[in-house]
Amino acid sequence: MTQHSFASVGRTAPMTHHASCAARGGAGVLLCGPPGSGKSDLLLRLLDAGYELVADDRVILDGGRACAPEALAGILEIRGIGLVRRPFRPSARVALVVDCAPGHVGDRLPQPAARDARTDAPCLTLDPFHASAVARIGVVLDCLAGTCQPLAGLLGDAPDAHVRSPALSPACASAPAPLLDVSPNDV
């Protein structure tokens, strides 16, 4: 039997990366960032929200798919608790790459997402410790799956999404604004 290198068929060899991965409905979310950036914390919250464990701490990427190294499959490290074994998904197609950046605020309407060279998935930078991090990931996955429509920002601009602030729309500028009581702790 003839063996082919990955390069000879237009692919790179599978590589192990310091990252974590969860999946929802088969769509993988690859969590990247340096040690201590919140990957494992965000992974734990994704699992709590119903996502499936694919890999924690080390991820093998092969042709846009993610899986755990065999010795780590189903093992999750939880800071302050230790190592636990959990049910896991053997692999998932990477649909979204999240760059964990503690303290990252982000633009209200960011430019369209860059694509990850390893997986061709869109990249999202977010603060993994923010209360809405899991919900934001869910919205992006919904848009990628076609169950919601992105109008402007990270996933691209729609032609009819022109009004971005009251200053751009006289009708919006003249409308009365509701009064909101927002304390700094609510933001």
Task: Note down, in words, how this protein is organized.
It comes from Ameyamaea chiangmaiensis. One of its GO terms (molecular function) is phosphorelay sensor kinase activity. This is Phosphotransferase. Residues 16-84 form the HPr kinase/phosphorylase C-terminal domain. This protein is of the alpha+beta class. It has one domain: 3-Layer(aba) Sandwich (Rossmann fold), CATH 3.40.50.300. Helix content is 15%, strand content 26%. The strands form two sheets. The chain has a five-stranded mixed beta barrel with strand order 1-2-8-5-4. A two-stranded antiparallel sheet has the order 6-7. A hairpin with a 2-residue loop joins strand 4 (58-62) and strand 5 (65-67). The protein is globular.
